[in-house]
Input
Amino acid sequence: MATFIIGLIILVCGGALYGRFCEKVFEPDDRETPAYAKQDGVDYVPMATWRNSLINLLNIAGTGPILGPIQGILFGPIAFLAIPIGNVIGGSMHDYFSGMICTRDGGLQMPQFVQKYTNKVVYYLYDVFICILLLLVGAVFIYTPGDIFNTQVLGRTGAATDAVTWIVYSCIFIYYLIATLFPIDKIIGRIYPIFGAILVLSAVGIFVAIFAKGYPLTDVWANWNTVGQYAKDGGFDFAAYFGSGPLAADGHHFIPIFFVTVACGILSGFHSTQTALISRTIKSEKKGRIVFYDMMITEGFIDMCWAAGTLGMINLGASNGGVTMLFDNATQAWTFNTMIGGQLTAVSATSVVGILCKNALGPVGGMIAIIGVIVLPITSGDTALRSLRLTLTDTFHLKQDNNAKRILLAIPIFALVYVILVWAKLDANGFNVLWRYFAWSNQMISLFALACIAVYLYTHGKAKFVWMPMIAGAFYSFVTCAFIMNAQIGFRLPWTAAYIVSLIWTIFYVAIVLIDGKKKASAGTFTAAAA
Output
């Protein structure tokens, strides 16, 4: 429990201090924002700070800050320190500068942001990665809400052999297809804030339950093996899962696996695409810290609550209303198990959402929270696939002036999403793999934004602060490269070789960003334009 509290102190106090520091570095002023300078009643619209904050939080938070920590907590209580530290100096900084630079530059969106501060080659690479990310977002946001609805609302198994599973998937899929062609999102948009409030309140409810119900939480300095310590039906050895270090042959390689699994609460490249949208509606630059930085801190709090709640469920064990971890020899992976009809039954990570909600909030409160968790990813998934279609349209200069042309482009996109979905469901370890590649592409996107932030600082007379984006940039260069070098769907290199390649790539990434930043600063183009 103490480690969890320490983590929250780091998140809240560290966020307050570093948020002010980020603000001091950027120096927001009273200049007219794009919401007023380009006001058009459609995209550029001045909105209240509370509304911008809520919209931004809803855009960046879906199932990411829920399913990420549910899986990431298997690395043990070290997560309670890694999440807040990474969030404060990485994710929140990334979100703040991305949003503020786009605001300062007239409401730029991320593709134009990347093109302005890098070059055409990097811009096209960004397009490739953003398309991959949006494709995976579409698949993940059919899989996760579909499974939660099947298992927690309908009481089904959610198995691939259950016809209802595919009926629910198909319903979501059809909605996505319609939504990518027509502005149907406005229907759900009317009640979207309600479900956003449910997301926050469910996290607060879990937070209260952790203390009120006395969920057993492991501390970093205590015994990480819960057998005989908390759990009554099996326990779980977090230390064995973690391994004896980042290079452990017997562990799951905390670096990079943890930081790929727990994406949204620490740092998420997808967030920059959302803060760019808000750059067109914010009334004052001086409200940016609340809207951009503090909302990421809020997501970090949500992450921490779900991580702690899941750890409590594991330590309680299935016989006490929690979950029991068992090793599946067939998939060579640890599985969540709970009591169903008096039998210990394996369930997916998505089912843990319902188990925790109902345990912490009771049957009624738990069901309300579950519905909120179901709706939010659906309202994000349709946006992702529509954004993917528009990205391809802009990149290849395709005309989309009628439904026939939109359908022709949508068909191959949805075919790919469905193939990914079927594979993830039929493969016993499919969801874990899908989630990690979704998270990997998400982290890869952040490297583009972090590079642009560094170049911005160089070109605006703030070179002494370039270390801020470069700390996160260097770390995630290493993490993303090491993951893909070793992964089965990647290059399948041994871990030692993967780490060596990653170190070389990290040095190259940092050097290229710094050289390009200095070169652009010497040219004086951006500084002169800003003046």
Summary: Strands lie at 324-328, 333-340, 343-347. The chain has 20 helices and three strands. The first helix runs from residue 2 to 26. Residues 197 and 483 are 35 Å apart (CA to CA).
